[in-house]
Design a protein that fits this description.
The chain is an alpha/beta fold. The chain folds into three domains: about 5-65, no CATH class; about 65-145 and about 255-290, Periplasmic binding protein-like II (D-Maltodextrin-Binding Protein, domain 2); about 150-255, Periplasmic binding protein-like II (D-Maltodextrin-Binding Protein, domain 2, 3-Layer(aba) Sandwich), CATH 3.40.190.10. Helices cover about 40% and strands about 20% of the residues. The chain has twelve helices and twelve strands. The chain has a five-stranded mixed sheet. It has a five-stranded mixed sheet with strand order 9-8-10-7-11, sandwiched between helices. Strands 1-2 form a two-stranded antiparallel sheet. Helix 8 links the parallel strand 8 and strand 9 (about 205-210). The two termini are about 35 Å apart.
């Protein structure tokens, strides 16, 4: 299989060479008459075949894109994991996956408003349930692919060697970053933890809200916040900035972060979407998910 470019030079489309070559090795005027019912300009010797290929290629390109490309909307916490899984899936299936990251709440709003996604990997179960209630997913496609964990993390030298949990109780003028509870499920869980510890009220003036869990970590690595409540899956990336303290938050101290996947009803290629979701549930993918700090749900 060779790759050819459609009119957009950034977008590769795959289809057999014979599909392109054979239909166009014919008389220019004859083909144009077939397409537009008549030809009003004379044929130009030596120019006919090139003109036809350029003119008709987008028709074949469009069909190729729909068959081979899968648009996967994914919660920010799972992006690094997905970037590990996708190359394996593409090599096995021949499909191409476009990764669209964001906060689960924002991705949900885009889906409701007609965004052309095929699969949605949410950081919670509430939004997939809402999509299911509105008949915006393929019936029976919803399942839990990972269970998230929270971690308190800092790179502030003042907290070196200390317990990050203790740091929350003595921040002074320092800031704490968490994901926005209105947009991100990890923010909801972080708020539940702080409320349960009796810290929510006292920390109100010191909170910095990330639009998603990725931005939350960015606040802490950039120094805009001294401490952050992040996803366990982000620890490896966070360590690149120099960790001074970290503490895993028990799942008993907040509601379960059940991350669910769905095939969207508006998918342009249900076969590819099904293949992808099956691959996500495979033993290889589950090993990768677990290695990145997630707990695994029981397979049903």
């Amino acid at each position: 299989m060779r790759s050819y470019r459609a009119l957009d030079p950034k977008h590769k489309v795959k289809f057999p060479i014979l599909t392109v070559a054979r239909p166009f090795q014919v008389d220019y005027c004859g083909v144009w008459s077939f397409i537009a019912t008549r030809a009003e300009a004379p044929c130009l010797p030596g120019f006919a075949h090139k003109s036809i290929v350029v003119l008709l290629l987008p028709l074949f390109a469009t069909a190729g894109v729909r068959a081979d490309t899968l648009n996967v909307a994914v919660a920010s916490n799972f992006v690094d994991v997905l970037r590990t899984i996708v190359p394996q899936f593409e090599a096995q299936s021949g499909h191409v996956v476009n990764i669209i990251p964001g906060a689960s709440g924002k991705l949900y709003a885009q889906i409701v408003n007609g965004a052309p996604f095929d699969v949605f990997l949410s950081a919670d179960l509430r939004r997939p349930e809402m999509l299911e209630a509105d008949s915006l997913i393929v019936a029976g496609s919803r399942f839990t692919y990972a269970i998230g964990q929270l971690v308190i993390w800092s790179r502030d030298q003042e907290f070196a060697g200390s317990n990050c949990v203790d740091a929350l109780q003595d921040l002074g003028r320092k800031k704490l970053a968490i994901a926005n509870p209105l947009l991100a499920p990890y923010g909801v869980a972080a708020k539940e933890y702080l409320v349960g510890r009796g810290l929510w009220g006292a920390l109100q003036a010191k909170l910095v809200f990330g639009e998603n869990i990725a931005q939350t970590l960015q606040f802490a690595t950039s120094g805009n916040a001294s401490v952050a409540v992040i996803a366990h899956s982000q620890l490896q990336r966070a360590d690149d900035f120099g960790t001074t303290c970290t503490a895993v938050i028990s799942t008993d101290e907040h509601g379960p972060i059940l991350q669910q996947a769905v095939e969207l009803a508006a998918t342009s290629d249900t076969g590819a979407a099904i293949e992808f979701l099956e691959f996500l549930r495979s033993s290889d993918s589950r090993e990768t998910i677990f290695a990145h700090g997630y707990l695994l749900p029981e397979l049903q």
